[in-house]
């Protein structure tokens, strides 16, 4: 089962955009659970988690991914920032990756040349940290770092915040 871990900065419009994209994945049975990690203590985020059946957590920005992973039900995770909106067919791209190479972390890259370059530089460094767009085993997320660069998936995400 795949769990979405969403790090929220309190923007309800951004969070709504991300949640709206995830609803079809839940309806298809692809996404089984979501964890909303509130980094600012916005009461609206807790209400959104309650309304959608997601798990609500409060954690610092730096610890959000690891805390979310620790409370995820699934053994595979996809990380999102509130406002991340994957393009159409993201489910198929992630599903194919999980069938072919589930143990390898993958990335749903950000749209745009600058964002793509920034992500490539970030993941080329040793001891890479976790970031939005990553699809990975829960055990990897719990360590808080990647040992190798993720596979780039053939689908993009944009920021709708």
Secondary structure: elements and pairs:
Layout: E1 2-8, H1 12-27, E2 31-38, H2 43-52, E3 55-58, H3 64-70, E4 76-81, E5 84-86, H4 90-101, E6 106-107, H5 113-124, E7 128-129, E8 134-137, H6 138-143, E9 145-146, E10 151-152, E11 157-159
Parallel strand pairs: 1-2, 1-4, 2-3, 6-10
Antiparallel strand pairs: 4-8, 5-11, 6-8, 7-9
The CATH architecture is Alpha-Beta Complex
The helix content is 25-40%
CATH fold name: Spore Coat Polysaccharide Biosynthesis Protein SpsA, Chain A
Distance between the termini: 28 Å
Radius of gyration: 14 Å
Order of helices and strands: EHEHEHEEHEHEEHEEE
Q: What's the pLDDT, averaged over the residues?
A: 91
Beta-strand share of residues: 25-35%
Low-pLDDT windows of residues: none
Structural class: alpha/beta
Q: Could you give the count of β-strands?
A: 11
Number of helices: 6
At the first level of CATH, the class is Alpha Beta
Neighbour order of strands in the largest sheet = 3-2-1-4-8-6-10
Major sheet details:
7 strands, mixed
Outline type: globular
Tally of domains: 1
CATH superfamily: Spore Coat Polysaccharide Biosynthesis Protein SpsA, Chain A
Protein name: Glycosyl transferase
Organism: Bosea robiniae
Quick structural overview:
The chain has 161 residues and is α/β, with parallel strands linked by helices.
């Amino acid at each position: 089962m795949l769990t979405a871990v969403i790090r929220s900065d309190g923007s309800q419009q951004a969070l709504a955009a991300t949640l709206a994209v995830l609803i079809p994945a839940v309806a298809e049975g692809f996404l089984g659970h979501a964890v909303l990690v509130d980094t600012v203590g916005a009461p609206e985020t807790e209400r959104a988690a309650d309304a959608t059946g997601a798990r609500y957590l409060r954690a610092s920005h730096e610890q959000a991914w690891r805390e979310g992973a620790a409370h995820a039900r699934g053994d595979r995770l996809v990380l999102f920032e509130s406002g991340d909106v994957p393009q159409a067919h993201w489910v198929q791209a992630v599903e194919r990756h999980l069938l072919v190479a589930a143990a390898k972390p993958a990335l749903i890259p950000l749209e745009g040349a600058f964002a793509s370059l920034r992500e490539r530089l970030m993941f080329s460094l040793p001891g890479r940290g976790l970031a939005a767009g990553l699809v990975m085993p829960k055990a990897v997320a719990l360590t808080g770092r990647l040992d190798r660069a993720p596979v780039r998936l053939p689908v993009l995400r944009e920021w709708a915040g």
